[in-house]
Specification:
- The structure is a single chain.
- This protein has 171 residues and is mostly beta strands.
- The chain is built from 1 helix and 14 strands, in the order H-E-E-E-E-E-E-E-E-E-E-E-E-E-E.
- Strands 1, 2, 4, 6, 7, 8, 9, 11, 13 and 14 form a 10-stranded parallel β-sheet that branches. A two-stranded parallel ribbon has the order 3-5. The chain has a two-stranded parallel sheet with strand order 10-12.
- The chain is globular and about 40 Å long.
Length: 171
C-alpha cells in the first residue's frame, strides 16, 4: 500500500508540475510586446527595454523593462518593474509595481502595492487596500480599503473607505 501511494505521488508530481510550468509564456528582447487582439491563457513573463502589453492576459502578468506600458486587460495579478511604468488597463486582482515614475489610470479590483519616485493613481477605483511609498504620491482614485503611505509629498484627492495611515514630509 505504501508503494502504491509513493508511485501515485510520483506520477502526480511528474504530470502536474510540468503542466503548471509550461502553462506560462515568456517574451523578452529589446521591445517585447503582446499586441492588441492577442490573448495569453496563463501567466505571461515579459522583460526588455521597452515592454508593452496591449493584449488580454487571462492569468498573471509579470513585466520588467526600462519603459513598461500595460494597456490590455489583466485578469489576474500584475507585477511591474521599470524606470517608467504606465498601467492604463484594468487589473482584475492585485497590482504590485516599483519604478521611477508610476502612473495607474485603470481600475484595480484587488490590493495595490507601489514603490517609486513619483506615484500617480488616477483611475476610478482601487477596490482593496493600497500601500504606497514614494517621493511624490498623488491619489485621485477612490480606495475601497485602507490606505498606508510613506512619502515626501502626498496629495489625497479621493475618498478612502478604510483607515488612513500617512507618514510624510508634506501633506
Amino acid at each position: 500500500m505504501k508503494n502504491l501511494y509513493k508511485i501515485s505521488l510520483l506520477v502526480a508530481v511528474l504530470v502536474i508540475i510540468p503542466s503548471l510550468v509550461f502553462a506560462a509564456e515568456f517574451r523578452h528582447g529589446d521591445q517585447p510586446s503582446l499586441m492588441v487582439g492577442e490573448r495569453v491563457n496563463g501567466d505571461l513573463y515579459m522583460a526588455g527595454g521597452n515592454t508593452t502589453s496591449a493584449g488580454r492576459v487571462v492569468g498573471d502578468l509579470f513585466v520588467a523593462g526600462g519603459s513598461v506600458l500595460v494597456n490590455g486587460l489583466v485578469t489576474g495579478d500584475l507585477s511591474a518593474l521599470g524606470g517608467n511604468v504606465t498601467i492604463v488597463s484594468d487589473v482584475s486582482d492585485d497590482l504590485r509595481a516599483a519604478g521611477g515614475n508610476i502612473t495607474i489610470s485603470g481600475d484595480v479590483r484587488g490590493d495595490v502595492l507601489l514603490g517609486g519616485g513619483q506615484l500617480n493613481l488616477v483611475g476610478n477605483l482601487i477596490s482593496g487596500d493600497a500601500i504606497l511609498a514614494g517621493g511624490s504620491v498623488r491619489i485621485d482614485s477612490k480606495v475601497g480599503g485602507s490606505l498606508k503611505i510613506a512619502g515626501g509629498e502626498v496629495y489625497i484627492n479621493a475618498p478612502v473607505a478604510g483607515d488612513v495611515n500617512v507618514k510624510v514630509d508634506k501633506l
